[in-house]
Specification:
about 110 residues; alpha+beta; 5 strands
């Protein structure tokens, strides 16, 4: 019918069988285990460490914020902390913004 395109004919050969149901279930299980160990487990560990860090904050700790600021905790309230950045400069921030605590005396060396 077409001068440039050859006609295509269906092959009536042996039908190919896809993977078995058990093979698919095993692959799904392997995928779930890999997903758990590479994504979920490390994330849960980080959340637990962050929760412990927020609960252990106390007056006098030197901390680093998510924005990169560093300061000393002057007062800890429920969800907030009053931080002294420099002399006579205090800010009130959420405790969840704290990324890490620093060893005592770090601010004097900076």
């Amino acid at each position: 019918m077409s001068f440039f395109i050859a006609d295509a004919y269906a092959d009536a050969g042996v039908p190919s069988a896809g993977p078995s149901m058990w093979g698919q279930l095993i692959m799904l299980g392997i995928f779930a285990v890999v997903f758990y160990f590479l994504l979920l487990r490390p994330q849960m560990k980080r959340q637990k460490e962050q929760k412990v860090l927020m609960e252990s904050l106390q007056k006098g700790d030197e901390v680093v914020f998510a924005g990169g600021l560093i300061g000393t905790i002057r007062k800890v309230e429920d969800d907030f902390a009053v931080i002294e950045l420099t002399t006579n400069v205090e800010v009130k921030v959420q405790r969840a913004c704290v990324v890490a605590t620093l060893p005592k005396g770090t601010l004097k060396n900076i």
